[in-house]
Design goal:
The structure is a single chain. The chain is an all-alpha fold and about 325 residues long. The protein has two domains: about 50 residues, no CATH class; about 200 residues, Orthogonal Bundle (MetI-like fold), CATH 1.10.3720.10. The N and C termini lie far apart (about 55 Å).
Length: about 325
């Protein structure tokens, strides 16, 4: 009893709690704050500039908030800004980007998830060679493949016409009975799907490899086959890596400029190509507020995806990147 009393009177034991405002914390949080301001300042300038009229912008103080808020630059950027002879703003490019994005993301993720699942649990002859080829493809610069892909898309139309023996309206026509993939949205969807395959297959393979193999073996013993195991066991456990794949593909495809300007035509330009035409236009007055609004509108979709699924992205990228 006396020992217990003496122990209570001696006070709390254990390590001394650290001060919240210690020198180390001040350095860490100060550094984070400095870098945050560095990256957020351009965004702040873009937002306040897009809400100002041109007379106020000409005063020269880019950091001051707008004296009179106006949404006219946003309206003009969306529906009135001119890109060449067309003056319908970014709205047409937005819907073109949506038509490119949705099938590209669905196709690339669906195929890559099956590839990663097969390479992780259903080994076949030459599987390691196939996986090595995919990994090499992930690191080949896009610029080296631009012209070969142009030839493939051009000749691919003739090949499809010969195989199907009839025209396909959904990929565009180039004369009677001839399919035209080059310059169509379908051609660009195929390009994004193929180029997204290597890195997505790597992510899915590493993630599925981290799942305990006992689950797979137990399902095999119960008589489950390839597709049943994939849909009933693997997919319900793979939500984080699917979120990672969606974010990577949405960001890469939506922000793409190079493929969009090469493999499409003015009627089917994605949003990024139209943004470039608006910002770099040399005709008339340079409307900086419209340019800033157009830039913010173009980057809105990836930002929404990031903010909506940030925690799952961190979980998935960690699980799919460090194992394998």
């Amino acid at each position: 009893m006396a020992d217990t009393t003496m122990h209570a009177l001696s006070g709390p034991t254990g390590p001394k709690p650290k001060k919240r405002l210690s020198r180390g914390n001040i350095i860490v949080y100060g550094t984070l704050l400095m870098f945050s301001m560095y990256y957020l300042l351009p965004l702040y300038v873009m937002i306040v500039t897009s809400l100002k009229g041109m007379p106020e912008i000409r005063l020269g103080n880019v950091f001051s908030p707008p004296l009179e808020v106006t949404y006219e630059p946003w309206v003009k950027a969306w529906s009135e800004a001119c890109t060449g002879i067309n003056c319908d703003g970014l709205s047409r490019g937005f819907w073109n980007s949506v038509q490119i994005l949705v099938p590209s993301v669905i196709l690339s993720i669906a195929i890559a998830s099956v590839n990663g699942y097969a390479l992780s649990h259903w080994k076949f002859k030459g599987s390691e060679t196939f996986f090595t080829i995919l990994i090499i493809g992930a690191f080949i610069p896009y610029q080296t493949m631009l012209y070969p892909i142009v030839i493939m898309l051009r000749e691919g139309g003739d090949f499809l016409t010969w195989i199907l023996n009839e025209p396909l309206e959904w990929v565009g026509l180039e004369g009677p009975g001839r399919v035209r993939i080059m310059g169509s949205l379908t051609g660009l969807v195929l390009v994004h799907t193929v180029f997204g395959m290597p890195i997505l297959t790597l992510l899915f393979r590493n993630y599925f490899t981290s799942i305990p193999e006992e689950l797979f073996k137990a399902a095999r013993i119960d008589g489950a086959g390839f597709w049943r195991i994939f849909f009933q066991i693997m997919l319900p456990m793979a939500l984080p890596i699917f979120v990672v794949a969606i974010i990577l593909q949405v960001t890469g495809i939506w922000n793409d400029f190079l493929f969009g300007v090469i493999y499409t035509k003015p009627e089917t330009y994605p949003m990024t190509v139209q943004l470039n035409n608006i910002v770099n236009s040399v005709q008339g007055i340079k409307e900086y507020n419209v340019n800033m609004a157009a830039t913010l509108l173009t980057g809105l979709v990836p930002l929404i995806i990031y903010f909506a699924s940030g925690k799952l992205f961190v979980r998935g990228i960690a699980a799919g990147a460090v194992k394998g």
